[in-house]
Amino acid sequence: MNGWMGKIRAVLMLSILSLVLAACGKENLTALDPKGYGADTSMDMIILTTLIMVVVFLVVIIVYSIVLVRFRRKKGQENYIPKQVEGNHTLEMVWTAIPIVLVLIMGVPAVMTVFDLADESEASDSINIEVTGNQYWWHFNYAGEEVVTSQDLYIPTGEKVYLNMQSSDVIHSFWVPSISGKMDVNPENVNTMYIEAYEEGVYWGKCAELCGPSHSLMDFKVIAVSPEEFDQWIADMQSVDPADEPQDAVAQEGKELFEANNCMGCHAIGSSPSAVGPNLTNFGDRTKIAGFLEPTEENLVDWIMDPESIKPGNKMTGNYPDLSEDEASSIAAYLMQLKPSEVTPESVGGIN
């Protein structure tokens, strides 16, 4: 009795745990609620393959149940030997043909989808963005626009945006589950994909390839805005002048410390390329600090003071002079006021 009760308790606990875990997740970090063309086509493939697997499972269970009931050994037939069907060519052809047909039903649409999502025929007439994966952040250069940013990728809704992706170090993988599929980002070659968002919003992105100790913290965001707001954002970013002086005295001191400590050697403000660290042009509008921290001045001070304890293996650690907490606070105040545009994640629905 105790054995059965233990098994019942174990099954009950597993069932409750499954229900609890099934509810975990974020609204804009799921492939099951597609908000873009790539995610939509991927969802169609998920539904197709799931239906086929369910049908196969049901057929197997039905056949198994029929055989189990109809051909079970009966009393008085202990020595009965049923008719043998070795070498039944019809049966062998059937169970060979069925898997081939099922593979074709799944394989043909899958191949067509892959070619569709890899189609570059409209790239010359669309927005092109050069994407660089770094340990552990993302860099975005809008081709022909003289706009450079990092971590937050702004795109217009209802338009194809082509991403030409390459890594500066190890293999990464670009994935925004709600609006697109995955694409490997390699050091040796450029991989191209396009994304298209149906609705305005802030969509979470992930690196889907193990790339080092802080791989799980290599998050980014895609901010989808209306075409009009996107044009406004581009114009605002193009008008940024790195030489502009902050009006706030603390931020002014922070700017001087930022330049004096050679932070501009790794970072950039404006369209100037920065080969080592993220571009900071619109840092004050970022949805996260270092990809995952809440965008508060306190968190930024902690990051400046000791980035290694927050994001192990990052390339910022040990590459600038030691700063006092007051100096770090001044630099944080300067960076948090870098807000060149009114088109922000909050303007399209906030940070999800």
Structure description:
The chain has 352 residues and is α+β, with helices and mostly antiparallel strands. The chain has a domain of 100 residues: Immunoglobulin-like. Helix content is 38%, strand content 16%. It is elongated. It starts with a helix and ends in a 16-residue tail after the last helix. The mean pLDDT is 88.
Any descriptors?
elongated; five-stranded mixed β-sheet; 352 residues; Immunoglobulin-like; 8 helices; alpha+beta
CATH superfamily placement of the domain at 249-348: Cupredoxins -  blue copper proteins
Main beta sheet: 5 strands, mixed
N-to-C series of helices and strands: HHHEEEEEEEEEEHHHHH
Beta-strand segment tally:
10
- Structural class, by secondary structure, is alpha+beta
The top level CATH class name of the domain at 249-348: Mainly Beta
Amount of helix: 25-40%
Radius of gyration: 28 Å
Q: If classified by CATH, what would the architecture of the domain at 249-348 be?
A: Sandwich
Please, what is the average pLDDT?
88
How large is the share of residues in beta strands? Answer: 15-25%
Number of helices: 8
Report low-confidence residues grouped into runs of 5 or more.
none
Strand order of the largest sheet: 3-2-1-5-8
Silhouette: elongated
CATH topology of the domain at 249-348: Immunoglobulin-like
Q: N-to-C terminal Cα separation, in Å?
A: 50 Å
